[in-house]
Specification:
The N terminus is likely disordered. The protein is built from 38 helices and eight strands. The chain is mainly α and 703 residues long. A five-stranded antiparallel sheet has the order 1-5-6-7-8, sandwiched between helices. A three-stranded mixed sheet has the order 2-3-4.
């Protein structure tokens, strides 16, 4: 065997640079390294920035100021998977900062992030891309982008990821997206129910909670509830309620079931399997106010349907509600009283409540909580209406009114009078304006405010920063020559721009209650007048001289309606013509199954962005949904003498109610028929009149 010759080692090429370990203790230097052509340098720089940003919000702001976000944006689509992964990790951790989110929206990063959700990508990329999207999806404009760029499908697919962080981020993002109607319809089509139900089995409570919250939102849709039942979702929810270990999920599980109770078919299914009895029993033994309150609200929604009322009566729901009236929580008492009001439509329930519920409701009239008293009064009114056997509640009320210590109806009368002088606040608080409540210039719809919250003036609302909350729609159709005269009218104490703070009202009510003891009835009435005068004086001291800009488009609408609709022969013709006129100005008829494609929310957001203000003149709205159209109809109807009311529903629904006299039957000349109440269709078949109480009218009012 020959001698082995040792192979000589070749020297390295002279033009190759030896590897250099780079270290830096300043963030600025690391940010500069993001420009390097070396993949190893880029990966290490991103890793260092991730650790730096993870230490706190101040560090994220520092990196933002150094321009790190713009550099990282170029790297999230880098061909090297490690560089891409590390860059996305930095994005995911930094996106929790408000200013970073703002810049990410400007850079339009959602499309790039969605592309990283492909099945072949690394699970870490999935984790931080979904984290970034979840942080950004709190903003309405980003929700629209994610939806339009096809982000829902990969997010739903990732609900089945083996990684719990990916699941958590994905379901959180979906939860934020389905707050909007179009996304709710889309996730149903993408079969989101099975993977959400699968998440309820997760060992991580936060994943279970987010899945339930998402189910609660999407189950507001009837078709989704059907799919939920077909996938045995009701059984899953009832099992959660039966398991003490899942007590932290009971409120949310009940909220989903509450939505399901609205459907007759679903309620029958729950009843047949014994689930309804279990549900009512669970509410009866629960000591959690939120569970008790949500259960009562669910019963209220279910009781809108006559068949549902029969089923609930068969399961003796009345006992459950009467017991809830005695719970030491005002929210529970209000919800229970409202449920009783709804169930009163069933005569059998009405008799049960009359025998057992009236004493408890009367006791609630002495509550310090105005909302409790209002709900109790409404329930008593419904119980005593057309029911002689229940009318003896009236004797108890008269006794209370004669008691100087317990009487409080004068303060309530003062509030009602003041609300009638301020229709903006009345509509916000009560959700209803009658035909005698004429909308004038200065009216604005800011949505329903929660009890106890301050009702803000139009000026205060106009000074707020631009938000993604619903726009404030205001009315001001003053002719151009009258604009300057508005300032003089602002000095008048009855000018609608003035608002009454609820806190002032309650203060007056308490003061009156203290002063009124032992005084004669005529002295009490005098006090009420003084209270009203005093409150007006307080308001005048705080009155602002800010004037809303005029809405000349609305003025043109009113002028056009005066010329073309007012001359029509009958009120019915005027109502139909006005409905078609309003629909034409608000984007035209909408096909019922394409409602989610109408895109009115984006249109309103664009107007707010254009005006740099949350306050939008109604004439600017060219794509309006139910509540925009109903408000415009009421405004013009009031100007041309058509009597109609305005009613606010749930989930952006609102409608107009009109009273019309039908034609006399043939052969019976001169017969005067009583007026019938109709709901005016302004959306699907503009001008179609639906009789109040009909199935089509009820369908128009609710989703």
């Amino acid at each position: 065997m020959g001698k082995k010759v040792k192979k000589e080692v070749e020297p390295p090429p002279k033009d190759v640079f030896d590897p250099l370990l780079i270290e830096s203790k300043t963030a600025a230097t690391v940010v500069l390294m993001l420009n390097s052509p070396e993949e190893e340098v880029l990966a290490k720089a991103c890793d260092a920035l991730y650790k730096f940003a993870s230490k706190g919000d101040e560090n994220k702001v520092t990196l933002l100021g150094l321009g790190a976000v713009e550099h990282l944006y170029k790297l999230i689509s880098h061909e090297d998977p490690i560089v891409r992964r590390n860059a996305i990790m930095v994005f995911g951790i930094m996106a929790s900062n408000h200013d970073v989110k703002k810049l990410l929206r400007e850079l339009d990063v959602t499309n790039s992030l969605i592309s990283q959700l492909a099945p072949e990508e690394d699970v870490v990329i999935h984790e931080f891309a979904t984290l970034c999207l979840a942080h950004m999806a709190v903003e309405y404009t980003t929700k629209v982008q994610i939806f339009e760029q096809g982000g829902l499908e990969p997010l739903i697919r990732l609900l089945g990821s083996p990684d719990p962080d990916v699941k958590k981020n994905s379901v959180e993002c979906i939860y934020l997206l389905v707050q909007d109607f179009q996304s709710r319809a889309a996730v149903r089509a993408l079969n989101v129910i099975p993977p959400l139900l699968e998440l309820l089995k997760s060992e991580y409570p936060v994943i279970q909670l987010l899945a339930l919250k998402t189910l609660e939102v999407i189950s507001k849709d009837g078709e989704t509830r059907i799919i939920l039942g077909e996938n045995k979702g009701l059984d899953c929810l009832l099992k959660i309620l039966e398991t003490n270990e899942f007590s932290d999920l009971h409120v949310e599980a009940l909220a989903v079931l509450g939505n399901c109770l609205e459907d007759v078919h679903t309620l029958q299914l729950i009843q047949q399997t014994g689930g309804l009895k279990k549900l009512l029993s669970f509410v009866g033994i629960s000591t959690v106010p939120d569970i008790q309150k949500n259960a009562a609200k669910a019963i209220t929604r279910a009781a809108y349907d006559s068949e549902n009322r029969k089923i609930l009566n068969e399961e003796e729901v009345e006992k459950c509600l009467i017991n809830l009236l005695e719970i030491d929580n005002d929210g529970v008492k209000v919800a229970a009283s409202q449920a009783i009001s709804a169930m009163c439509e069933n005569l059998a329930s009405k008799r049960v409540f009359g025998l057992q519920g009236i004493p408890q409701l009367v006791q609630l009239l002495s509550s310090d909580n105005e909302e409790v008293k209002e709900a109790a009064v409404t329930a008593l009114a419904n119980l005593t209406a057309a029911s002689p056997s229940n009318a003896s509640a009236l004797d108890i009320l008269e006794e209370i009114n004669l008691s100087t210590g317990r009487k409080n109806n004068f303060s309530e009368a003062a509030l009602e009078k003041l609300l009638d002088n301020n229709l903006s606040q009345k509509y916000s608080r009560m959700g209803y304006l009658s035909s005698s409540n004429i909308i004038t210039d200065g009216f604005y719809d800011c949505g329903q405010i929660k009890p106890g919250m301050k009702f803000l003036s139009l000026e205060e609302l106009s000074m707020q920063e631009l938000t993604d909350r619903r726009a404030i729609i205001f009315i001001n159709a003053k002719p151009q020559e009258d604009v300057l005269a508005v300032e003089e009218k602002a000095q008048d104490s009855s000018y609608e721009q003035t608002i009454l703070s609820p806190s002032i009202t309650r203060k007056c009510s308490r003061e009156k209650a203290r002063k009124g003891k032992g005084k004669k009835e005529e002295e009490k009435m005098k006090e009420v007048t003084e209270v009203i005068s005093k409150v007006h004086d307080e308001i005048n001291l705080e009155k602002s001289h800010w004037l809303p800009p005029p809405d000349f488009i609305l003025l043109d609408y009113i002028n056009d309606a005066t010329k073309t609709i007012l001359p029509l022969t009958t009120t019915r013709e005027q109502v139909v013509a006005l409905a078609q006129f309003v629909a034409d100005k608000m984007g035209g008829p909408i096909e019922r199954d394409k409602l989610h494609d109408f895109g009115w929310e984006l249109h309103i957001s664009e107007i707010e962005f254009e005006l740099k203000c949350n306050v939008v003149p109604i004439g600017k709205v060219k794509k309006g949904t139910f509540y925009h159209r109903a408000l415009l109809f009421k405004v013009i109807a009031d100007r041309i003498g058509i009597g109609c009311s305005l009613v606010r529903g749930e989930y952006n629904r609102a409608w107009n109610e009109v009273k019309l006299v039908d034609e006399s039957p043939q052969g019976i000349a001169g017969l005067l028929l009583p007026p019938q109440e109709y709901i005016v269709d302004l959306t699907f078949e503009p001008g179609f009149l639906m009789k109040q109480g009909s199935a089509e009218a009820d369908r128009y009012k609710r989703i």
